[in-house]
Design brief:
Chain A contains 15 helices and 18 strands. By secondary structure, chain A is an alpha+beta fold. In chain A, α1 (3-15) packs antiparallel against α15 (443-465), α4 (129-146) crosses α15 (443-465) and α5 runs parallel beside α14. β11 (306-315) of chain A pairs antiparallel with β11 of chain B, so a sheet runs across the interface. Chains A, B: This is Peptidase M20 dimerisation domain-containing protein.
Chain lengths: 466, 466
């Protein structure tokens, strides 16, 4: 790879950035909400859009049916270099509360930002449509300038990442031979800060659970039954309250089994990172860390397991007042896991914890929304080094090796089912409001990300030759 | 009043029962849900329907505007006897969960019951359209047979009973002179059992509260912020859990101030009543009393104050899963009060209890849904005795003097604002599913209730002469 060739590709990407933004807006306009079956046809449309987009780049691509939303698989493996499998997801989170959006979530707008940047605003602008197109557009620039890609690239896009990825495990097993590559590249992560790129090497796992408490066989009137009849909302609130300890920990018995204290070297590295603990909270209107006392926020969100309540509903929740004793109440809860925790053991411990708190004349049912272990990636590998160097060259500073509190269960699946390690390189920012109203992706993320992946592809090609 | 005259009125009512049922069905068809402003016009329609109905019986009646839903007032005071003010409400509870109704809540159906009775099924069939028309139809029979009523009767129907009766206090003050009578007759209560009529002499008060917790200034992603950011649903669940004690009591400081132990004589009377504690709960699918240990169910629901959670919502509650840390959560709570408790002190104590549990960087707002004290009526009065005797004559057994766990705040208003005592006589049954799907009124309640009120009107006329 010559410097001038690389420079030509970078120049091409810069010159055609507007077209890249237009393609991203086209993809955002497809409301591919995976958790709501009303949007199933839109998920298919998004898959077809992506398949067509990479066919344009010379990929042998197709939409593959599953029990749920379809997969997109494409291969462009003419080059000599190593073989990278790129993974992203085209599905997005629901948009509610819709009333807090300042613009239609599925009609993206470009909004000038106070810092001179431009925000691309819409559901999925960052997570994950913007991030995955960042890589696709890098490939497009290579193809446009040199007629081919510098290394072998396969792509896999799924449509159920926000819905528990139920079809993914079986699909990976069926297509294990086809998808096998030297390394997986996943783009679902953040930059360290506006100037510092990052490669994520630690990911928390996730156990997602929903439960419903049933007490009486109908809703009751509190005038007739108040005091005497068990209240399903009270039982549910009691259970939720019992999950956390006074000092911010998790009270489920056995939950911390296998959890180690953070490696002192990593802890020291994190303490050196430019991270403003107060600003992290004050940016969202808070001041007091809610997790375990005596642990830094980075440790709380990257290296400590957590328990959060995501949704709860029961009784009369409309305008006005209704003195009903609700017969049923539902709650959605998740646990973020760290290395050493067994997700199935955590799920079992949670369910036992709940069952022990359901009165004898009431009942509980559970629904699983996934169970995946935490991942800690090997820090030393030539490909990681090459990627770090490429990112450093683009951004003018060394890439941080970070953790992330979020879960990317597929990383575990790639390791277990395909024996592949994953490089996690993303250009999202902390304030992108993913999963929230007014989600956005910075134009500088998109532009710098495309340029970064152009360099990463070159570096991986060169690393092979070295 | 001669026996034969009374018998003629009773016979007329029996012979025209089908027409009475048809009128009740007409009234149920008007969806006068007071807590939802979408039904405001229907509330007006229900008021006009009632005003027209009693004009037919010779009442000087009109619909009176208020800040909320209108009142209906009517007078028929040509007779010599004492003056009764009859109170009822034409508004009804919301119908959700609508999917549990076996028929349209506002298209009443007559359904044969296993015991040979017939159920009139629809929202408001019992509470309070059925109950108030029971009295109106008794007046109709008197008017049809004798051309007049045996005593002076005024009627007052409101449309906000299920919504906190906000307009009622001011209205009673404005119309105090006009509404003054010898006694109030209120029909919002139950029979003791299928064969035993009841007059209710103890009513619990009610403090209704709604609160909203706000933590972060937006919903957050638990992968990024889990552990570190306060979760509004967790805070709300912790507060709800903190309201009750382990042994079924209420944990708000000062809540039991002024509460006396039940009078031993009344306790003994209640123990003699044919009340099946196990059946009371097993009828609704439960087996274990949830209130204070060591107290009977009747004591729990009639003579002990309570705290119930009626509604709670926060976070993502639709299909699927969303790992959001909710910024806001809401809950509706009520306290049932007994004699000796000050509703304002209870409200203040509750709010202090909540505020003490809101983290410093979060906030809470409150909305009041009413605050009314408990009522204990004087057991000895000639009118009570006359009413008891009339009920006994109709049903062939002595009327029970009962308590009720429900609140009828107007009884306190009549006492405070008009200086009037209230006779609470109703023909609803425990299993009428008021406030719940498939609310019904037994045809035997309607028929026996009309006959009972015919006798009560005669007895009050005779009592005056005695």
């Amino acid at each position: 790879m010559t410097e001038s060739q690389l420079q030509a590709v970078l120049d091409y990407a810069d010159a055609h950035l507007d077209e890249s933004v237009e393609r991203l807006c086209d993809l955002i306009r497809i409301p591919s909400v995976s958790t709501d079956s009303a949007y199933a046809a839109d998920c298919v449309r998004a898959a077809e859009w992506l398949s067509d987009a990479i066919k344009d780049l010379g990929f042998d691509a197709s939409v593959r049916k599953t029990e749920g939303h379809p997969m997109v698989v494409g291969h462009n493996v003419a080059a000599d270099g190593p073989h990278v499998l790129f993974y992203g997801h085209y599905d997005v989170q629901p948009v509610d509360p819709i009333e807090l959006w300042e613009s239609d979530p599925f009609e993206p707008v470009l909004r000038p930002a106070p810092d001179g940047d431009t925000h691309i605003v819409g559901r999925g602008a960052s997570d994950d449509k913007g991030q995955l197109l960042t890589f696709v557009e890098a490939c497009r620039a290579w193809k446009a300038v040199t007629g081919s890609l510098p290394i072998k690239v396969s792509m896999l896009f799924e449509g159920e990442e926000e819905a528990g990825s139920k079809s993914l495990g079986p699909f990976l097993e069926e297509t294990a031979e086809e998808l096998k590559a030297d390394v997986v590249l996943v783009c679902d992560t953040d930059m360290w800060d506006r100037e510092t790129p990052a490669i994520t090497t630690m990911l928390r796992g996730l156990v997602g659970e929903e439960f419903e408490i049933t007490c009486a066989d109908r809703d009751l009137h509190s005038g007739m039954f108040g005091n005497a009849a068990r209240n399903a909302l009270q039982v549910t609130a009691d259970i939720i309250a019992s999950l956390r300890t006074e000092d911010g920990g998790v009270a489920v018995e056995g939950f911390y089994d296998g959890v180690s204290e953070l490696d002192p070297e990593i802890k020291a590295q994190w303490e050196r990172l430019p991270f403003d603990q107060e600003a992290f909270l004050s940016d969202v209107g808070l001041t007091i860390p809610a997790g375990e006392k005596g642990r830094s926020i980075l440790e709380q969100v990257w290296a400590r397991p957590s328990c959060e309540i995501h949704g709860m509903i029961g009784g009369y929740t409309q305008e006005g007042f209704k003195t009903v004793i609700p017969a049923k109440a539902r709650a959605k809860v998740s646990f973020r896991l760290v290395a050493g925790q067994d997700p199935i053991a955590v799920r079992d411990a949670f369910r036992a914890h709940v069952r022990a708190r359901v009165p004898q004349d009431c009942s509980v049912t559970f629904e699983s929304h996934g169970a995946s272990p935490a991942i800690a990636l090997p820090l030393e590998s030539p490909m990681l080094t090459a990627t770090r160097d490429a990112l450093g060259a683009e951004w003018g500073r060394e890439a941080a090796l970070a953790g992330t509190g979020g879960s990317i269960p597929i990383v575990g699946d790639f390791k277990r089912k395909l024996g592949m390690d994953t490089l996690l390189v993303g250009f999202a920012r902390f304030d992108n409001r993913i999963h929230s109203p007014n989600e956005k992706y910075d134009l500088s993320s998109f532009k710098g990300g495309i340029r970064s992946f152009i360099r990463v592809l070159a570096a991986l090609a060169d690393q092979q030759k070295a």
